[in-house]
Amino acid sequence: MTNRQIPVGVSARHIHLSQQHVEILFGEGYQLTEMKPLSQPGQYAANETVQVSGPKGTFPKVRILGPARSQTQLEISKTDSFVLGIKPPVKESGDIAGSAPMKLTGPAGEIELQEGAIIAARHIHFHTDDAKRLGVKDKDRLRVRTGGERGVVFENVIARVSDSFALDMHIDTDEANAAAINNGDIAEIID
Amino acid sequence: MTNRQIPVGVSARHIHLSQQHVEILFGEGYQLTEMKPLSQPGQYAANETVQVSGPKGTFPKVRILGPARSQTQLEISKTDSFVLGIKPPVKESGDIAGSAPMKLTGPAGEIELQEGAIIAARHIHFHTDDAKRLGVKDKDRLRVRTGGERGVVFENVIARVSDSFALDMHIDTDEANAAAINNGDIAEIID
């Protein structure tokens, strides 16, 4: 990779759960179990899945990503949102105020949430060292170009910088399909 | 609209049928019937739908666009292709050589096709007068920018110029969802 090239990770629909919600859905004292690690250090895809429902439809098995977080957050594509019949806003991860409602069903219980469903805003995780090398600051808005016949330039790609991040751009399945990008492909920051 | 702004039409999955295939699916001598006109003069959404199947899944009611054409052609998004379990190439409309197989089922019969399923390459229809005004030639590759928080620049947008076209950019649902565009929104040709 040359200087401004970054690997792209395609995020399929997934959910983060609070420990309180883990226990409502899976039983008192239940702990999520790791199936495989993700690109970001300490994050993993759990063996557990949960059913997510909206007024129009259901996804029976949405993958849970661990570890448990302070807030429950569903991340879906706009295509998925039409299936469920909800209208989630495009938001940064962690910012669920005013996001869309959903119902979660697990083996031990169910939860009706008034908010928690978002379409995740496209973003790049930068380790602090990568950000320094590339001249990028936390919360910068970047333009990123993908190549090929179906190439696009994604605007307003949010930079997120932390010592705990590994360099990776995250887009959802609509964005990946629109650009004919596969997980692990390379894109380039153009400004 | 200023000079280089164009309306965007979002194409949901649909199919064009040859008259021969209309008659296999709906019966001898059958003629498609118009439900509503499309943006391109003479083109219409038909009242008729057809079931489209692949190795992994089925869409029970895919809208037929009329009038009948010389070749049967299914146009779906990449997201749709995963549901069917086929791998259609990104192609210009009319270029179905080497495209993906599919099975069609209608009230009077069914057809197994070895090719015909494509992901339509993003394109703009220009009336000859619009093309002249904008300095665009048939088959030019353009870059088109959408606005807003989820803005993108689509590259390799194919110009199609004809006296029988009305000015309209056509993208599929993946592209629309990736850019948070709705039918009738405006985009801008940047070069």
TrEMBL record, chains A, B:
Q: What is its EC number?
A: 2.3.1.222
- Pathway of this protein? Polyol metabolism; 1,2-propanediol degradation
Which Pfam family is one of this chain's hits?
PTAC
Into which EC class is this enzyme placed? Answer: transferase
Query: Keywords, A to Z?
Result: Acyltransferase, Metal-binding, Transferase, Zinc
The Swiss-Prot or TrEMBL record lists the needed cofactor(s) as: Zn(2+)
Please give the Gene Ontology molecular function terms for this protein. Answer: acyltransferase activity
Q: Which reaction does it catalyse?
A: propanoyl-CoA + phosphate = propanoyl phosphate + CoA
Q: Which family does it belong to?
A: Belongs to the PduL family.
- Outline what the protein does: Involved in 1,2-propanediol (1,2-PD) degradation by catalyzing the conversion of propanoyl-CoA to propanoyl-phosphate.
Its recorded name reads: Phosphate propanoyltransferase
* Organism listed in the record: Paenibacillus yanchengensis
- Organism placement in taxonomy: Bacteria, Bacillati, Bacillota, Bacilli, Bacillales
